[in-house]
Amino acid sequence: MVNKFDVLIIGGGPGGLSIGSLLAREGVSSAIIEREPTLGGRYRAVRFHGCRSDNGVRMPTAMVRTPKETYMYKFLSSMGFPPEAKVVDWTMGKVSKDNPNRIEYFSMDPKKGVENFFDFFAFGSGLPMEKPSRQALMKAFRIMEDTSEEECRKLVNVTFASWIERNVEDPIAKAVLELAAPLMGAPATVVNYGAFANVMGTFPRVGALLFWYPRKGNMEDMVITPLANYYKDRGGKVLTNRRARSILIEKGRAKGVVVHNNKTRFIEEYSAPVVICAIPIFEAVARNILRPEFLTKDWAKAIELCAKLSYEDLTGFYLLREEVIPRKGPGWVHIFDSDYGLPTYVGDWCVGSLYNAVEPPGKQLIYSYIPGGLPDTPFGLTTPMDAVKEANRRWETAVEKVFPGFAKAIEFRGMTLQLNWGRYSWAAVPTELDMQSPNIRGLYFGGDTIRSVTSMVSDKIYQMVFPLFEMIMKYIRS
User: Domain range spanning residue 277?
Assistant: First the structure.
């Protein structure tokens, strides 16, 4: 087997496949090293009980008005397969045992911008926001709107809580901003202001965050299958069932990767002057793939802080004997349960048909989505199952309140826990982790665990892929 390449890519998820496809298009010899039997990462599809669906509930998210403006759409279009997309409403629903069979809905309206937060406050609390608090909140959002991406990048070492303390006096406005912090997956005391300002500045700039999904098929169909075919058709090598053990570094330069072949059980060595780590950077360090002695002090600290926010999210798969949640109407809803005092977020319900899931005739697939990292869902990488069961119970109880008979209709219940959707990179850090190692030549980073000041979630990968490609090509040519 050939073991010499121009570039080695660790990780065959959307990040690794994207940079690999660009390199293959230029005739650069490369290999993707993937520990699983197939490519796809978190965009792999799963099959069970006659169903085919996404492995987890993932919607591309961005800070623009339409799917065609996203980095993801532009990248896939440039590769020759522009996706057909549908926009998905960002909807909240409030349930209570005092109002059986009923649910109050609230959807973000892109035309309202920051006004969405005033309406959301009234929806959640049952009280309108008074004028002084509205003015204070508007002022805070204007500051975030006016902070450029470059300025945000310089503020990744400032916590959002400390920024609120210095810039917002009104107690209600403070509370609203602090309660908004869980959107970033962690308390305001640990997420950085730069990332938060870049995201929340979207509301006055374009109205609201954009959520969208393929019109046909799932994420594997839209992203993984076409990219994998493109990569292999242009000479890219795929090395599956191989677990990276160590990035080889000599005299400050990347030299290759040592892997463990899961089938033969043998150790294999591949050489290349460029190595791209497209798996989570904190995972690479924890597994000693990237040894700590090859990190600068500020990078080592930043990776440690990001790792502390690397919670797992829970997706539940509920195959029902009959249709219980109407297919018409909101297919994706954040559920707030009023029976905990204040309306308490307990997770999302997601209708399988919204995600183009394949279902057995006459049956219905429903997903739950319960993010980790919140006070009631402390799902770490070693998640205690009693916490998972309690989160599931709260979610199922909330759904039952508005759709009685949901529990009895369950024919199959399954779940996955997987690394959350990019919030780890929003930690307050001494320096922003970037695409190129500061001290090792030929070592680069892809995927979504680097750069906090970017577009959102999946879109982030495609914002970075062209600059990463240009860096690598310049290095190879030199």
Answer: 7-37+240-308+425-477
